[in-house]
């Protein structure tokens, strides 16, 4: 397969101009040709020709125009809106979490069409065995979708930790016992196809950028709270990966000298106060002890802690309050350094965001320069298992849009 | 005057191509035509034509070729190297510091050709009076250089604090008693010419980018320690100012919850441990009390503290050691978030960098993800009063290079 995949790119002919139009349609979700022309500066004739090609190639479809979409200036003739064709391609997305290997098949607009989850304590397995389990999960998910791997556009994999996206190397990850696991290469060899690997929080940022409600924003920052605390940074419509390709380890910035011990071995990391394991660890002072190296036990203990807090137990509430304060101080530091217009909070912990929210906002006001006046918008985005899958899909699509195109 | 100033741009004719060549010469300091061609991808014929124009316009000069520069392939004919003509233009640079108004006249390569300093406790004066003192300083410096304001390319002003570069508004600055001083407008009105205003640490980053030994680097970060702790961030050859235009307040990131009180009114800021006033304040435990709102007294007390530390006084050494540790933790946070390949330390405090260095490096190793292995290069760049002047010049030149050009 040479078109519309990581080996062939979109193979669209027309190159850069076509990608610009495709990108405009993607960002706006549903858009009239005239608005593409206005937004891109391309002539209406060019837009008409390019969109005709995109439609004939099956990448774009015309939506039935609604009454509301009819522009009065066009004398009642309803405006036809263009959108991406959801069925134009399929992407395989994988998330390797401490207790799950989740595989999904996603379409061109980020909807999950098939998925397969494997419960496993990843850290107890050898990396090669983890790779085998990922391969099995991919096979299962493809079978459910009635596809072969060759019929997909590519495979995107998210792994927590310090991941070198360019080489697919896991420099350090809480899911592997050892550093420097070449997991991208291992998977590419097993699957016989190119594989893209990235930090899991970067995937969430890509999911926001490609499919999120703020996809049209040029600059924003995503912070995820779950097993760990991650961050993805979008500057000028591009995910920023840092000059040394392992950027945005926000969870390991320090807000307390000699503070709480983190899984990374250092002290005072935000993660050591805010991640799920940190809440459960602190709750050990008054709840039954829990082995926080066991992800499932950690999740059960966290559910119990959340239930106590929902019942207004003051000690449980205080645990959430402190986590919110520390997270707020960390976010204020990000604001002071980067001054983003929008911060999106995401990750499983945001399901209980109401337990953190007041403490986060109070800490932001007390610690961001300019105080309350100059705060960026802080949004909590709806969270579901599909976010990671969408991110893995976006990782592949993002690369597809960048591959050299035929023509120009 | 309509050419080579903030109203007319370079007025170079040839537009973008000419600027690309000019920029290449600037970054390389002295470069042969053939190397410009290789670096820019422009044909040798184009480079020859464009450089001929630049020479005839007086922006570029030919250097006498040295023996070493002769390329063997050219059969002994010495290669002619091109460089910026230092005398092509003059820029006015101003730094408003708590105790000084420093004005300099700088040439096209950042050399200071005239300067005038006014000692004054800026905070005790009304903003309009500060503006008048700046105007007087500019007049003095111009007289020394034998120039009129109209013969300069423009005026760049650096002010500490939260400065909106786009509007010239000082949102908060330690040198003014009140927020929201439209100092850029005030100066433009007084001087009758466009004025560019920016945060003083951004000026140091621009000075590094334009005239520093690392000017060819695409990505780096400058941290300044002086009255305060500032930061400038260069990404992809551009100063990053943040989406809300007041970025990089690194000095006010927090590394200690409920920590030391900062001049900004918040607690636990890096600045509250590392800035000159913070060292003197801590030394108050064993040295004669010093009014840290008086910049001159602060500087004298700091000299006394440094002398004690140089004499290996253990308490004085400990004050520097702690400051180094806190600065190192802050730098590690920057590395964890942005992962820059190079950090440049600058500012007056770096004159005594040997008193901080070991503590900085120990804290970096203990707090950066990846520890010692993945640290960026950390360089202390020679520091002198000319750095700020060069930065103000770079602020003007940076804008000149961006102004729309005739032709293209």
UniProtKB/TrEMBL annotation, chains A, B:
It holds the Pfam family ROK. Signal peptide: none annotated. Belongs to the ROK (NagC/XylR) family. This is ROK family protein. It comes from Lacibacterium aquatile.
